[in-house]
Design brief:
Blueprint (H helix, E strand, L loop, with lengths): L1 H39 L2 H13 L4 E8 L4 E4 L19 E4 L3 E9 L5 E10 L1 H94 L3 H5 L1 H28 L7 E4 H10 L7 E7 L5 E4 L1 H17 L5 E10 L2 E8 L27 H11 L3 E7 L3 E9 L8
Parallel strand pairs: 7-9
Antiparallel strand pairs: 1-2, 1-5, 3-4, 4-5, 6-8, 9-10, 10-12, 11-12
Helix pairs in contact: 1-2, 1-3, 3-5, 6-7, 7-8
The structure holds adenosine-5'-triphosphate and magnesium ion.
The site of magnesium ion has 5 residues, from helix 7.
Length: about 400
């Protein structure tokens, strides 16, 4: 825009100055050769003089001679005199007059004694200045448009770059999540293989130990030493308890390594709750309850696998309430899911552990394997569902199993 302004102002100034010099030159020539003609008022001579000067330059529009009494003595155009008004007697020197589209040079003519004989008027056209202004105005509009177009292109580029950066950031986050999942699933697969072989190897000797304890207990039955030392019976109970714990751990490890194949059918949620409860030994200081909502009575699932999930969640809740409490299970609809909530008012979970709950082998318990929740998650996800956890330390925890209602979305 500044450039366009310069392109208007500079050429206009140059053209006007050139016109002025041309006009002065022409009027000086006229003044020089017209003295005698003006003195005797030879109109023919004066007219010829005017026409010959006009011919020399296309910028000269017209020219005229005025007499002492301001009368027009000769003019190149019938329209002359122009609207410019002056008095010959009062002219002191060359005058340059400008109107909207022309420039007039008025030059007094005097005799040797300095007396006024008349005046010449040369009128020049301003049209070249107008052309420059017109062209430059077009240029100004174009350059303004160009400027805004340039700004638009730059903004567009910057916005696109910003979008690209945020897309890249998203893609990077996604990639990072995928990588984490890959590492996790590789870890799970490795644990699965190891678990399967270790569990297989340990199950046989464990069975042998159990048989041996049974044999010892049976052999000692009625023996005086068994009756006199109650510690022997206690020790045998302890060994059997530990065998039970070890067997459970081995079974969990084997479950974890087994591929999840589902046999789905509609199963009453309450039935799952009751049968899971029956397989757990619930201390007397823990109250249990089940509350279904209308329409949330049946889960379409693999009953055996889902019972395993219920057992894991209920066992965790019971273990979290060593001082007693309440385990409340309820079923409800939350489109597009049927949700089963397991709420306890036990110890709660430390906030820093919330992210690790479903990681294999994460456990805060002395005898925990840390496989209950990962196995449950795997089973629920195979059903096309999700499992969520919420907890307030010291107040209790809530685990929710969400299974899709739409059978199309269920997998497995
Ligand atoms: N209801 C709950 N209240 C408090 N903490 C819980 C609850 N459920 C799970 N946790 C925490 O999550 C951890 C992981 O649970 P998970 O069931 O996977 O393993 P575990 O119970 O320790 O061992 P196991 O393999 O025998 O189930 C637990 O050790 C415990 O710290
Ligand atoms: Mg557990």
């Amino acid at each position: 825009m500044i450039l366009s302004w310069v392109t208007i102002r500079e050429p206009s100034r140059l053209i006007l100055s050139e016109l002025k010099h041309k006009g002065i030159l022409a009027s000086n020539n006229l003044a020089q050769y017209s003295r005698a003609g003006l003195l005797v008022k030879d109109r023919e001579f004066l007219k010829d003089l005017l026409v010959s000067v006009k011919r020399t330059d296309p910028d000269i529009l017209s020219a005229a001679f005025y007499g002492r009494d301001d009368e027009v003595l000769a003019a190149t155009d019938p329209d002359h005199p122009s609207p410019l008004r002056f008095s010959v007697a009062s002219l002191k020197g060359i005058q340059v007059k400008r109107s909207s589209d022309m420039m007039a040079i008025v030059n007094p003519v005097r005799d040797e004694l300095g007396r006024a004989l008349g005046a010449t008027v040369v009128v020049l056209s301003d049209r070249r200045v107008e052309e420059v202004v017109r062209k430059s105005a077009g240029l100004m509009v174009l350059s303004t448009l160009g400027f805004f177009f340039g700004v638009f292109i730059i903004l567009n580029f910057l916005i696109k770059e910003a979008l690209k950066a945020s897309e890249l950031e998203l893609a990077y986050d996604h990639l990072q999540r995928l990588q984490e999942q890959l590492v996790k699933s590789e870890r799970m697969a490795a644990i699965g293989q190891l678990a399967a072989s270790v569990a297989h190897e340990i199950r046989t000797p464990l069975g042998g130990i159990q048989n041996a304890v049974y044999y010892v207990r049976d052999s000692l039955k009625g023996a005086p030493v068994f009756a006199s030392d109650p510690g022997i019976g206690d020790m045998l109970d302890l060994v059997e308890d530990e065998i039970r714990v070890s067997t459970r751990i081995i079974n969990e490890l084997l479950d974890f390594s087994k591929p999840v194949i589902l046999k789905k059918r509609p199963v009453p949620v309450e039935g799952l709750f009751r049968s899971s409860l029956a397989s757990l030994s619930v201390p007397g200081n823990i109250k249990t309850s089940f509350k279904p909502s209308p329409g949330a009575e049946d889960l379409v699932c693999d009953a055996e696998r889902m019972r395993q999930v219920f057992q894991n969640l209920m066992l965790n809740a019971i273990q979290a309430m060593p001082e007693g409490g309440e385990l409340a299970v309820s079923a409800r609809l939350e489109q597009p899911y049927l949700c089963v909530d397991f709420k306890d008012n036990g110890t709660g979970i430390a906030p820093e552990n919330m992210d690790k709950l479903f990681e294999p082998l994460f456990s805060t318990k002395a005898k925990g394997t840390g496989l209950g929740l990962p196995i449950s998650k795997e089973i629920v996800e195979k059903h096309g569902g999700v499992i969520e956890a919420a907890s307030v330390r010291g107040k209790g925890s809530a685990f929710t199993v969400k299974l899709p209602l739409d059978p199309e979305k269920r997998s497995g």
